[in-house]
Fold this protein.
Amino acid sequence: SAYRYVEVFKGANALRYGSNSLGGAVNFVTPTGRDADAFESRVDAGSFGYIRAQASSGGASGPWDWFITTSAERQDGYREHSEGQTERLNANLGYQLSPDAETRFYVNANSWRAHLPGEVSKAAALDSPRSANPEFVQLDEQRNIDSVRIANKTTLRFGPTTVDFGVFTHLRDVDHPIYRYLDYNVTDYGGFARATDNRMIGDFRNQLVVGFTSLDGTTDYREYANLGNAVRGPLLTSQLWTSQNHSVYGENSFYFLSNVAFVAGGQYMYAVRDQNDRILSDGDQSGGRTYSLFSPKAGLLWNVDASWQVFGNISRSAEVPTFDANTFATPASSNLNAQTATTYEIGTRGRTSDMKWDVSLYRADIRDELQCLTTSPYSLCTVVNADRTVHQGLEAGFSIAFLKSVYAKGDSFWFNVDYTLSDFFFDDDPVHGNNRLPGAPPHYVRAEVLYRQPNGFYIGPNVEWVPRSYYADNANNVTVDPFELSNFRIGIERDRGWSAYLEGRNLFDKHYISAVLTADTATANSEIFSPGDGRAIYGGMQYKW
């Protein structure tokens, strides 16, 4: 695998990585030559022409270590005009300068080719889910991206203090024929530094995290007419976008009791968006916008024991519009405000030998929420600020072994469930009142009963369930229907040697809508619905040594 594990930091808990978005941050931790398998290979195949092959290798020699993984994937797709293929390469090379100093270089390269089936009306999505939108077929709409990311991270340890710093650059070439033919090149580059200090202040334990991040970039953006069949026509738009994103942050955890910490922190963010229009026949769409925002947080963390904790916090967050939002074409689009929110959260997480859980209850009062609203399936959405909105809900994951040593010594039945309650609505909006916000199911459940044996064998059914309909538009005119999918998996998973699995998805071949483009006002005939995949079987084998 390209990742050893993935950490999810929700909301204000992501401040330690310099993130201050409402959703938080995801930290992808890659294997190194010191913790990776010497060799791993894997092949997966299944319905709709899906096949994937992956191989990786890692090792160490003296102060050097290395890891590399490569994969290739292709599929015909469930729907007409949805075939695609992807190739990926991820590698890192580390050098241990001393027992307290290490530097590591990273390379990530990706090639993605995808045909787009497009969104359709609600009836078409449910009655003829394999059909593509004819407009997408006629234009041969695609998304093709080649990207390379190169980075370095150095870690230094000075007693109780650890310092991480690094630089990176990310290059992307995007060839994207849709209702117009988009062709643009993106160059992002930046650096970061973070210091983490763990020490005693008198008789009290204290952790301080301070850092900064800098991300700058340019986008050479061009739009051509799409003459059909992805044939590039005359140049219609040519713009140069330049961005700056700089933030400094700090977070301190002071343990006023041996297992209870008061956590306080904040982030200052400065961002610039500049656009230089190079074709003026349709008016000069050049412009710029500067954002300056401060976001504090405060909370409590109670480590009940080594296996579980309880937390609560109040935090601010801020997100600035991206370039495709700030087009500067009209006064409305050139005056987008940053999205800000005040979030209140309480929760608990932990694990024992027979149980694990992660539960959080939250409410976010949002100002100027950035909404991307579409008017047709072959046009870019328009980003607007919603005045006042509320996101509140519950995110819960729970696993428990409820039967043990039933058929063999050490075996167990596990009940695993993930539940999300999303109560999102306008707050006395002048147009939409207290309507529900579109696009998010109010309830989402994924539940599984899984039988496991100590030798790695597992078998069991699972369900994916959206029990209630939800809206597709701000006006609350059109709903997305509820659905329930039945799945089943069986396999054997081992740390060394062979592993294998077989999985059936949507076993009863239900027709359902898996995603929707949100709109301000829609009807059932609006082409904003994406059907989910039908019945499918997937299997694979893996070997490690």
Residues 122 and 342 are 36 Å apart (CA to CA).
